[in-house]
Amino acid sequence: MNSSEREYKGREKKYVTIMEELADALTYCHEKKVIHWDIKPENLLLGFKGEVKIADFGWSVHTSSLRRKTMCGTLDYLPPEMIERRTYNEKVDLWCIGVLCYELLVGYPPFESPSHNETYRRILKVDLRFPPSLPLGAQDLVSKFLRYQPLERLPLAQIMEHPWVRAHSRRVLPPSVQMAS
Question: Chief subcellular site (predicted)?
């Protein structure tokens, strides 16, 4: 394994840990009936020990039903149901996790295009193109989040069970959490 392959493997482990911690944070938010709506790299903070913290709840909503129709968020991260102005729920955050995972691994969002209209078109068609260098496990994880139908998206609780995540996880839970499991 050459140095660039080792570096990429190290990034995989770091990004898998981010996905796991983000899943935990969003699970908490969703249990409290909060939809974030704007998960993206700029809205994630790293704590002193590298732990992930979600920031910028400016677009978020607290609602008893978790069903909304407002269009908001960042263009490259908008899910199909928001673009089509359909009623949606917390599963918009699952779409954002898929876009985020792709962007962290590849370096740019999956539907990025020269114009807004082309980006909208690619999102609505879920026109997902993976670079050949992206490992198949990562492609599988991303494609399980980026589904046109929200109910088909990978639930947060299943992220930790995904084979690619399990193979690359280096997450160490605090003693209080380890004792509870």
Answer: cytoplasm
